[in-house]
Amino acid sequence: MNKLLRHAIAFSAAATMILSVSAGAAQAAQKTSQGDLWSVIRSDSRFSILERIVEGVGLQWRYQGADTRTVFAPTNEAFEMIPGGYQDMISPTNDSTKRNVQALLLYQIVSGRIDPAGLKPGATVKTTYQKGKVEIDRKGSDIRYGGDYGGTVTGDAVSASNGLVVPIDGVPIPSFSDVDPKQADGASAE
């Protein structure tokens, strides 16, 4: 009986240890995904300029909420490369500039979880939160968001409870085609 009791105690101790390790792993996984996109951006020093700009135009709420989305987030280096600087994007003083900055930020967000590691070669077109279309193009290991006026993915995606933050090396700017209004309406050009 004594031998049987020792085996039962040893089994119980082993089971307790396995359960506590499993619980610890589950808690660790929750810690990495408990924060929303806004929390991830605020806690990652690579995005401190983006954080200041988002706060300056009052769009924090677009990075929160339950809807799954992916933010192709320009790093500090991307903002520092803007000719003329980015300072006028932080707390714009007029409504027109504020709306333009908001549109620029919304162009960086797409619905769904777009993990760059899972993208197939070629172009994928998505609708942005700015309501325009954006091309995400994979050529070999290079992944570009926003075509010629966009940025290249510079690191691994960071998981959040409501999506992914993907670091990029440029500030994506929507491009608009130069269309003759007469041709767009179906009229012939003279």
Structure description:
It is a single chain. The protein is an alpha+beta fold and 190 residues long. Helices cover 37% and strands 19% of the residues. The chain is built from six helices and eight strands. The chain has a four-stranded mixed sheet with strand order 2-1-8-7.
Q: In a few lines, what is going on in this structure?
A:
The chain has 190 residues and is an alpha+beta fold. The chain has 6 helices and 8 strands, in the order αααβααβββββββα.
Q: What's the helical proportion of residues?
A: 25-40%
Shape: globular
Computed CA radius of gyration, to the nearest angstrom: 23 Å
Strand-residue fraction? 15-25%
Q: Structural class, please?
A: alpha+beta
Low-pLDDT runs: 4-33, 184-190
Q: Encode the helix/strand succession as letters.
A: HHHEHHEEEEEEEH
Largest sheet: 4 strands, mixed
User: What is the oligomeric state here?
Assistant: single chain
Distance between the termini: 103 Å
Number of strands: 8
Strand order of the largest sheet: 2-1-8-7
Name a few traits of the molecule:
190 residues; alpha+beta; four-stranded mixed β-sheet; four-stranded antiparallel β-sheet; globular
SSE blueprint and pairings:
Blueprint: H1 2-33, H2 37-43, H3 48-57, E1 69-74, H4 76-80, H5 95-106, E2 109-111, E3 122-127, E4 133-139, E5 142-145, E6 151-152, E7 158-160, E8 163-168, H6 181-184
Parallel strand pairs: 1-8
Antiparallel strand pairs: 1-2, 3-4, 4-5, 5-6, 7-8
